[in-house]
Amino acid sequence: EINNPTIQKQSITRQKKINSRTQSPAKEFVFTASDKSSPESNALTYKVKSGDTLDKIAQRYHLNLQDLLAANQITNPNLIRVDSLLNIPLQTKEKTQEKSNTALDIKSQSLKNNHIQQLKQDIAKLKQEYSDSSQITQSLTDKTSNSSASNLTDNLNNSQETIVGTVPNALSNYNSVLSNSIGDKVGPDLPALLSPEQYLPNAPKKFNGYIWPAKGVLTSGYGMRWGRMHKGIDIAGPVGTPIVAAAPGEVVYASWNSGGYGNLVKLKHPNGSITLYAHNSKIFVRKGQFVGQGQQIAAMGSTGFSTGPHLHFEIHPLGSTAVNPMRFLAKKSN
Ligand SMILES: [Zn+2]
Hints:
The chain has helices at residues 5-21, 54-60, 65-71, 92-98, 100-141, 147-157; strands at 44-47, 85-88, 185-186, 216-220, 223-225, 228-230, 233-236, 242-244, 249-257, 262-268, 274-280, 282-283, 290-291, 296-299, 310-316. The model is unreliable at 1-41, 93-99 and 136-172 (pLDDT under 50). The chain has two domains: 5-96, Roll (Membrane-bound Lytic Murein Transglycosylase D, Chain A), CATH 3.10.350; 175-327, Glucose Permease (Domain IIA). The protein has six helices and 15 strands. The N and C termini lie far apart (97 Å). It is rod-shaped. 27% of the residues lie in helices and 20% in strands. Helix 5 (100-141) runs antiparallel to helix 6 (147-157). By secondary structure, it is of the alpha+beta class. Bound molecules: zinc ion (ZN). Residues 220, 230, 232, 234, 312 line the site of zinc ion. Zinc ion (ZN) binds next to loops.
């Protein structure tokens, strides 16, 4: 509380002296806010009257005492002089109304900025993650081309999509053992496009997956059947229906099989797997011959242990017994 009469008296006398010297005494006072360029320049100015305390003034303007002190850079609240000018910081309504024209703009602008800020953070995060993962690949492949990872990362900055590579068929086409049901019509797809070097003389064949070996109706799947293991799938069709190579490879067997397969063709593929085509009416290839994917190797028949014209087809991966061919065939049927 500042009801010290001596201080008030002193300040009054000083005030008088100052007034006699200068026409604008405000600048001289301790409590006058001097910063006209501050955002608080719209603040009210209050002239301290006799009997005022900072507490009372703060209450009158619904201000926090600390705010009032801060607005006037008062370090000693016990020193207050009559007729000195106080900055009353405008709060709430008046201020808000003054700025209401721009408030929306500012708000949307700051929302925008927040959004951009967020995006920037996300991009930075992705860049970090990407460069972390690409560093592994990079160290495995080429340690000298340090720029490759950063170039790729830079490409990520462009909003345009960069197509790195494509697969011949959608991965989902190879998804499931159950993708084709018994009774579905199936058939060979167009063979996968070969890479250019496949056309060079003595080029090593490359493996690009299997295609359906015949067009027809899937009549039996892989698995236990009538108490016995059925090691392949059956595709039924008219006698003479073309049987094609499911993948490029070498003919390793092309003759009669007395074990029940009838006229049998076996192909060995670049990935080391073997495919098997049974019950053919005719065989069009000979052992040692190389065939391309989709090339006709036989005609459908009912030779061997067979109850009607169909192809019995098996896939034997390298070092494995027969597996379910449906795992490798496109579920889309022609
Ligand atoms: Zn069969």
